[in-house]
Amino acid sequence: MEMFSSSVIADLVNRSISFLFSRCQKQTTATVQVDLQLLRRLLMRSDTIVEEAERRHVSNQDMLQQLKALRDKAYRGYYVLDTIGCQALLPGRRSRDGKDKEEEEVKRRTFALSRFNPAKRVRFPSAGDPKPTVALDGASPEELHQMVCSLQAMIDGMDEFVVLLMSCPPMYREPYNVYLSLDRGMFGRQMEKEMVIDFLLKTEPPGAVNQGVLPIVGPMHIGKSTLVESVCRDEKVRNHFSLITIYSRNDLKDETKATFRDKCVIKHQNNQASSGKRLLIVIELIADVDEEAWKRLYSCERSMAQGSKIIITSRSENIVRFGTTEPLRLKCLPVEAYWYLFKTTAFGSDDPRDHPKMASIALEMVDAMQGSFIFASMGADLLRANFDARSWSRVLTRLRQYLQKNASLIGEYPDDVKVKDYPRFSWSVIKEKPDKYFMLHDIYQRGSTHREVPPISLLDLLAERAQPPGKYEILFWKSRIPPYFNYMCTCEIRDM
């Protein structure tokens, strides 16, 4: 009798627990659906505010800070929405047995590469390492609800911002759709651009004897030249300075005032009386600046008119010591902002939620590339030309192979290589098992005015549209936005 009673009680307890779990699960599912719908509506509202702000000249620094915070929050919202969408539309990811899950984890595991660690060490995770920070398991219901609440609070607190925004003068914008505007315009640097413009237009205190110098520092291919070009094309800047020139070399070694001026290229000349004789000199360097060379040239430029400014850019942190104001340090985009850029360029007008498997593959690519602007453009071109899950999966496999092979040989993130003529290895993305690989030597950039652009591009090789024998120059990548740099390299095809 006691055994029977114990069995009945145990059965009742199990049934009660199962009922409670089932009820909680249903409530959680219902809450998630409500939060997802609310998040979509909030993102539409945030897009409306951001788009209106981008149509107007916003110069108030507090408003710019609010706008940047709203953009960042919206990027995070889209990231959460898309990762949860992939998880919900791919139920098979959770139904696999333990062995399949383990194989899947090994297959999609990627190594961590720091683009800002001076040692540039590469860490290959062991089997016991945790999942990457940009995992495809989506956000938890709690994180989703917190995301919705924080975005709701931010939008509710922007009533005064919207009122002030309507008082800002409108500016002309061509009627691009979202895809074209992201593909052919500077992305993610609006706040930095306004900071540079604010520095350039700021009036120097009476009696100032030194020209203002703004250092801009950042790693290779991070967008320093693109940011400066966008600033120099701004109408307010062009109306403020009578002459804008740019000096672009490896360093300033052995330069005199005469040779320096001869090597400067005129970007803009303004003959309006309101601009006075103010000059803007942009110095773009790769290496560090010799102390004596800088003092020699800077003392020569002291004769420039009051209000003249200098911008100096470099990969070297040492140029910060020459600034008269706080330096601007460019870093990789946050993963949420980079995902927004990449998904828009890769999917175009298609909604990623209509292609959940391809969206999950794209998310893994974003995790691996760590904010590379070149890959966001070149990789998106490759994916749009082969718009199916099987092709995208093959591209992801080749991407992992490219990163692991080159990082193991070089010891650092491939985009950050500084050693001249250090080859990179790559493969075709068309064949299941490539029989050839190509070595890419000495990637360098040329300006848009250079007429001799190679007819064969890296995309042609990756897609096997061309495979000429021998060693020859190819177009590694061509930027679609000013200053329209062409990146070249020497390629050599070899048998596997």
TrEMBL record:
Pfam families: NB-ARC
Superkingdom, natural source: Eukaryota
Signal peptide start-end: none
Domain NB-ARC: 191-349
Protein name as it appears in the record: NB-ARC domain-containing protein
Organism of this sequence: Urochloa decumbens
